[in-house]
Amino acid sequence: MCGIIGIIGKNDDTVSHLIEGLRRLEYRGYDSTGIATLDNDAIARRRAEGKLQNLERLIKAEPIAGNIGIGHTRWATHGAPTVNNAHPHGNGKVALVHNGIIENFHELQKQLSGVHLESETDTEVVVHLISDYLDKGLPPEQAVHETLKQLKGAFALVILFRDFPDMLIGARKGSPLVVGYGGQDAEEYFFGSDALALAGLATHICYLEDGDWAVLKRDKIVIYDEAGTQIDRPIELSTISSALIGKGNHKHYMLKEIYEQPTVLGTVLSAMLDAARYHVQLPDLPIAPKNIEKITIIACGTASYAGMVGKYWIEQWAGIPVEVDIASEFRYRTPALPKQNGLCIIISQSGETMDTLEALRYAKQHGQKILAIVNVEKSTIDREADQSIYTRTGPEISVASTKAFTSQLVVIALLAQYLAQSLDKSVGGEKQPLELMRGFSELPSKLIEGLNSEEMIKTIARDLQEARDVIFLGRGKMFPIALEGALKLKEISYIHAEGYAAGELKHGPIALIDEYIKVVVLAPYDALFEKILSNMQEVISRNGKVILISDRQGIDAAKQQINTARDMELLSVIEVPSCHQDLAPILYSLPVQLLAYHTALIKGVDIDQPRNLAKSVTVE
Ligand code: M6R
Prior knowledge:
Elements: E1 3-8, H1 14-25, E2 32-39, E3 42-49, H2 52-61, E4 68-74, E5 89-90, E6 94-102, H3 105-111, H4 124-135, H5 140-150, E7 153-161, E8 167-173, E9 178-182, E10 189-192, E11 202-207, E12 213-217, E13 221-224, E14 236-237, H6 253-259, H7 261-272, E15 273-274, E16 279-280, E17 294-299, H8 301-318, E18 322-326, H9 327-330, E19 342-348, H10 354-365, E20 369-374, H11 380-384, E21 387-390, H12 403-422, H13 433-450, H14 454-464, E22 469-474, H15 479-493, E23 496-501, E24 517-522, H16 529-540, E25 545-550, H17 552-561, H18 565-569, E26 571-575, H19 584-603
Parallel strand pairs: 17-18, 17-19, 19-20, 20-21, 22-23, 22-24, 24-25, 25-26
Antiparallel strand pairs: 1-4, 1-10, 2-3, 2-4, 5-6, 6-7, 7-8, 8-12, 9-10, 9-11, 11-14, 12-13, 15-16
The structure holds 5-amino-5-deoxy-1-O-phosphono-D-mannitol.
């Protein structure tokens, strides 16, 4: 959840590079930030509550220097987001930054009787354990290794030593950590929570394996495995350019990422689909389609909604039974999994979500083959899966997921098509294959057309921002998009919102309907349209305000039925281009994203970094 960086440099720009790295890592948490350097043979620390700009202000007022240092951006777990609890933690001899949770920290604290702890964190104890070993005369490598043996939980650590000014040690277990190699003349070495943190700083990256720890010196890097044996890990060219992670001309990353969707989906489609030959190009699946007995899809949050739509597609087109599980529930409920030929599809943008990763491991231990749909290549989920399909969106920085979601949808739709074709099922169910292939090919241009509704959405958002509660309704494949619309709205605008299958309204949620509630109805003009129109009327007749998102035919049909002046007053519409009805979830994601964005914009809240959240949730 937290972001960590370490730099061992040759120049005076280490502090600015630490800040630059932290800026790229802020998406992992922004409760507090801090850096520590070796400045005139002493460990100098600067820490601030809240966002990076507060730390920058502090450093301006109280500068520190040095060409070796560590930095941290925190998503609080143990201890409130105060300066005292901010990383780096240190005792003058050792300073360190930590991502993850040290589960046995209470136990370890007891061993350290007599030591005064300044913070309420699970981290500070590690500082003292390492110092104790140093005091006993152990060299830093051994002091760290002995300490690591005592730690339980998931963690990544980077450690700075006062008395060893040419060395940083980093370790990972459960949480990711990469080593970076700087440019030819700079010869700097780095630690980072991910390759993104080192974009523009490191030219080459080495992904540490679980249990690895590495010693960075001024002229070399030595990597050890958990047992302490020196080991080589592959070093790869960093593919992330710092140019990819700017906001461009947009006010927020979220808007930039919404606008990138036509291009991103075009890239995914052209890499995976030869529409003219009805051919879906996929890497070999871990189980041949004809042998798959059951598919279990596991993910969290937005990614789990992509999985829910995937269930509709796979069952409809390929006829393979699918179960969708929320990762945080999956391994605690004794799921009934096939003994053989069970395929588990893990969906994750970051590839580092702890709940999802642990679910992957559980599924693997229980005999499932793992197919990951993942955005970040070389992430832990990518590396632990038997096979991965990449969503190819480039870095997604905004905490609210947008382009990653729609590309997950496209990938899973194409996977469903691939399974259907491999099993000789009629492509697209009742529909002609040609129509479906055309539907896929048209998605990028339909998304561009969909962006035209932004002005209308801005007007509706003005009204929505005053809502006390918002209900999103959808039927069939649009039900997960209703869930996603509600998540997006509450996540960035802090308005209470819930998504329901429209047919469920009358089984309870209808009790909420009054003149203060707004109901967003996602209703493409398809076989279920008449049914959802009835649900919409049930709302209007109880004075609820409806925002109908539909295509031209749907809007006309709705207006024909809702024809009194009073009822019309309760209805607003957002028009979406018509598209292949099976692919509507992809296109209808766009207006719900824009609706959340513009509502949050009017409310003036922090869109890219909403309160209490972090982009990558690497704790359970
Ligand atoms: O990186 P992941 O796709 O595994 O993340 C899963 C969820 O944490 C994520 O989708 C979250 O729900 C987003 N903030 C939603 O916008």
